[in-house]
Amino acid sequence: MSPKIERVNWKAVFDPRSLILIILGVFCAAVALEAFMLPNSFLDGGVTGIAIIVNLHYDVDLNLLLVLINAPFFFIAWKKIGKTFTVQSIFSVFLLVIVLEFLEIPTVTDDKVLIAVFGGVMMGVGIGLIIRGGGLIDGFEVITTYFQKNSALSASEITIFLNSLIMLFAALFFGIEAAMYSILTYFTAIKMTDYVVEGFEEYTALTIISKEDDKVKELIVKEFGKAISVYKGERGYLPDTFDIHHPCDIIMTVVTRLEVHRIKLAIQQIDPKAFFYVQTIKEVKGGVIKQIGSKHS
User: Fold this and answer.
1) 159: which of 27, 144, 210, 238 is 20 to 30 A away, CA to CA?
2) Residues 46 and 154 reside in one and the same domain
3) pLDDT of 182-198, one tens digit each?
4) Where do the coiled-coil regions begin and end (predicted)?
C-alpha cells in the first residue's frame, strides 16, 4: 500500500477566523518591530532576531532576510510537519513583509525599558495570535519541533540554546547592554505568547483521593459546578500500615488556577486528610470546563 499523501486543507487555510487572527497577529508584530524594536536596535529571538542582526550590521533589507532565512525552515515543515500548517506560515511571513514594506509606523518611545517591555508584549501578542490562527512567522519553531522528535533534548532546551547564540551575537555586534535589553524583550514576548495561546486562565487538573469520596464528588459538582471524572482505585498502603488498604473513587476535575485553592479548602472541611495532586494542562477542549454555578464566592 502506498503511503497516504497529505494535501493542503484549503478550507482551513481560508477559514475566516484563522485569517482574522493571522492578520491581527501580523499587525501587532509589525508594530512591535517598527514602533519599538528596529529603531532602537532591539532583538527578538529566532529568525526575526537573526534578520535584525544582519539588517542592522550589514544593511541588508529586513524583508528579504525574513523570507530567505525562513525558507529552509518552511521547506522542512512542508516535508516533516504538515502542508496546511506550512501554507498558513508562508502566508503569515509574506503578509508581515508586505505590512513592513508599505505601512509606516512611527517610533513610540526611546526609553529602553518601555521598548523592551511593550515591544515584547506586542511581539508576543502578535506571535500568539498567528499561532492560534494556525501559522508561524518564525521558522525556529519548526526546527525546534523537528529536532525535538529526533533528539533527547526538550523543545525548551533547544529553543534556549539557539536563542542564546543569537543573544551572544547581539552582544558582540551591539554591546552587552543592548543584548540584555533584547533578552528582556524576548522573555516578555515568550510570556505574552503563552498567555495568548494558552489563555490567561491556565487550566489545572486537580486529583483528589479521600475516604469521603461521595461527599467530595457532590461538593465539586453541585457546589462548584464542575464536571468530574472518577477512577476506581485503592487508598492506603502507608509505610507503617502497608497491609491496610481500602477501595475508593479517585476524583479528577479540571479547574482554573484561581479556583484550586478554594476547592481544596472546601474539600479539607469535609476530609482534613484528603490527598491532592495538581497538574498543569496545556490545552482543554470539550466537556464542561467553565464554572456554571457556585455557592462559594
Assistant:
1) 27
2) yes
3) 889 988 998 898 888 77
4) none
